[in-house]
Design goal:
197 residues; alpha+beta
């Protein structure tokens, strides 16, 4: 259990969860999310489409049983957004695409987003078929870029679309584990002179 409670993931139900996540994806803080500005029925329809896709899944992240973040997992080899982007990135077997969005009021505590994203990556890397996790962030979305970096992502490519320039970052299992070790070491209280003596 994290200091923020117990995190779990459950499959997103388009019919019951659209009302939950609609305020998230349309919030001013979510301006970089692909569905920003969508109407409720458009969100419901979009996730009905995701539920029908073989290579795309959506989950609601729960904090102590309460919805707190949104997760999409997809195979980049079958993602039309990757296909339409001008980028040198070529998906490889074992690549897993990730989209991650915090509920606007869920990250009031410093470190909450990092803890939630860490849980998601633990879930993805628990599958031995996962070699790399791929995330995309708008070049202007500095908060997302910082969050990605702290859990082990490294910027690898740029992607361009008519409406967006973004960065594609990759995280291997080794980078994820190394980042966790670095965070654990940094969190240790410094020894005082008396304690060292």
């Amino acid at each position: 259990m994290s200091p923020f409670g117990t995190f779990t993931l459950r499959p997103l139900d388009p019919f019951t969860d659209a009302q939950v996540i609609h305020p998230w994806v349309t919030h001013p803080r979510s301006v970089f999310w692909p569905m920003w500005g969508a109407r409720l029925h458009e969100v419901e329809r979009a996730y009905m489409h995701v539920a029908a896709e073989k290579h795309h899944d959506a989950f609601v992240g729960l904090r102590d049983g309460e919805p707190a973040f949104l997760v999409e997992r997809h195979d980049p080899r079958h993602d039309p957004r990757h296909a339409e982007a001008v980028s040198p990135y070529e998906p490889e077997p074992g690549d897993v695409g990730l989209r991650f969005l915090l509920a606007p009021d869920a990250d009031r505590d410093p470190g909450f987003g990092q803890a939630a994203l860490t849980t998601v990556l633990e879930h993805l890397f628990a599958d031995p078929r996962t070699v790399r996790v791929v995330v995309e962030a708008d070049t202007a979305d500095h908060a997302a870029q910082e969050l990605h970096e702290v859990v082990g992502f490294v910027v690898a490519y740029e992607a361009e679309r008519p409406e967006q320039r973004s960065l594609l970052s990759l995280c291997t299992r080794e980078r994820f584990e190394a980042a966790a070790v670095r965070r654990a070491v940094a969190a240790r209280p410094a020894l005082t002179a008396g304690a060292r003596a």
